[in-house]
Design goal:
Blueprint lengths: L5 E9 L2 E9 L5 E6 L9 H9 L5 E7 L1 H4 L8 H16 L5 E6 L1 H13 L3 E5 L14 H5 L5 E6 L17 E3 L16 H17 L2
Parallel strand pairs: 3-4, 3-5, 5-6, 6-7, 7-8
Antiparallel strand pairs: 1-2, 2-4
Length: 213
C-alpha cells in the first residue's frame, strides 16, 4: 500500500508580487524543508520533486516555493535583491507550522537561502546545484556567499556541473557528489548510474543529513 502525501497550495503576498508555496505535508512532521527553484526553471525540477516525494514519508514536510516572477509567468528572473526580498516576505508562512525550518533551494534558490538563512532564523541550509561560478569562469567565485551562510550547510552537486564540480568547492563544504549529474542532475543514458539512482543519491543524502538537524 502506497502512502499518499497530502499536498496543498498557498499563495503568499510579497512586495514583488504573490509567491506560491506547494506544501507536501508529512504526518507528525518534525521540521520543514523550504526549497526555492533556480533562475532557469521552477518547482518542477527533478531534484525538488524527488525530495518532495521522498522526505514527507520520513517526517519532513517539504515546501516548494515559487518566486513571484514565476507565478506571474515571466521568463527572466529579477535581480538577487528582489529574490531575497520575496523570500524574506514569505518566510512567516514557512514558519507558521511552528517547526524548525531548513532553508534551501537549487541554483539561484540556493544562493537566496545562503544569503538570508541566518537572519531569518533557519535551522540549516541545503544547497542543491550551488552555482559556484559562471560556466567557464572559475575566477568569478561565489564561494563567500556559500561559506558565509553561518549555519550547518549541505551541498549536493552534480559531478559534471559546469557551474562548479564537487572538487572545486572550498574546504569545509564537502559536497555530496551525484555521479554523472549535470546542473539539473540529469545523467547521460550511457552513464553507469540511472536517473532514478542519481535522484536516490540526493534524497538519501538529504534525508540522512536532516536526521541530525
Amino acid at each position: 500500500m502506497t502512502t499518499k502525501i497530502a499536498e496543498t497550495v498557498q499563495d503568499v503576498p510579497t512586495p514583488t508580487g504573490d509567491a506560491r508555496v506547494h506544501w507536501y505535508l508529512a504526518p507528525d512532521a518534525r521540521l520543514v524543508l523550504a526549497l526555492g527553484h533556480g533562475a532557469g526553471g521552477g518547482v518542477e525540477a527533478r531534484d525538488l520533486r524527488a525530495l518532495a516525494t521522498a522526505l514527507p514519508l520520513d517526517g519532513v514536510t517539504v515546501a516548494l516555493v515559487e518566486q513571484p516572477w514565476r507565478v506571474a509567468g515571466k521568463r527572466v528572473a529579477p535581480a538577487p535583491k528582489a529574490l531575497d526580498e520575496a523570500w524574506r516576505a514569505l518566510w512567516p508562512a514557512l514558519t507558521a507550522p511552528g517547526l524548525p525550518v531548513v532553508a534551501g533551494g537549487r541554483s539561484a534558490g540556493a544562493r537566496v537561502a545562503c544569503r538570508t538563512a541566518a537572519e531569518l532564523g533557519a535551522a540549516a541550509v541545503l544547497a542543491l546545484s550551488f552555482p559556484l561560478h559562471p560556466p567557464g569562469r572559475p575566477e568569478k567565485s561565489r564561494a563567500d556567499e556559500l561559506t558565509g551562510a553561518g549555519l550547518p550547510t549541505l551541498v549536493v552537486q552534480g559531478a559534471r556541473d559546469p557551474f562548479g564540480r564537487p572538487e572545486e568547492f572550498p574546504p569545509g563544504t564537502e559536497p555530496v557528489a551525484v555521479p554523472a549529474g549535470d546542473h539539473g542532475f540529469a545523467v547521460p543514458k550511457k552513464a553507469d548510474i540511472t536517473q532514478m539512482e542519481a535522484l536516490a543519491v540526493i534524497t538519501d543524502a538529504v534525508g540522512m543529513w536532516l536526521k541530525a538537524i
